Structure prediction request, 148 residues.
Amino acid sequence: MCRIICSFFRRYAFTLICVALILALSFFSPPHTALDNVAMIDKWTHLLMYGGTVGVFWIEYWRQYYNWGGERKWSALWLVTIALITPIVLGGVIELAQAYCTNGRRSGEWLDWVADSLGVLLANACGITICRWIVKKAIRRKMARTRR
Prediction:
């Protein structure tokens, strides 16, 4: 079991770093800047943070896929859990923690959670599309090698 967990940490290190950054920034009180005047800047930030994290996950997953020669190692249900459900639940839990555990320093907003979810959905749509393309390309390359 330890070997599996260590392997996951090694293969998905950048994704885990992004998650740690999201957790740290979620409870950090940001200073006031000129960007505070931009409409919905907070929502755009949430969309980019969560979309970026899921995007990094897909990049690391593609790298693994490419090394495996196009063979699927994870089931579709496991991928949906890791790439879709987990980040959306994480965003909701963080918003609840901001609302109830920060003594008024941060506020939990439902629109922040919607922005988190939208970022996750967009990154997954791109990730799945590109991953399918990579897998098809790897399979074609494998078939071309076997024909020779």
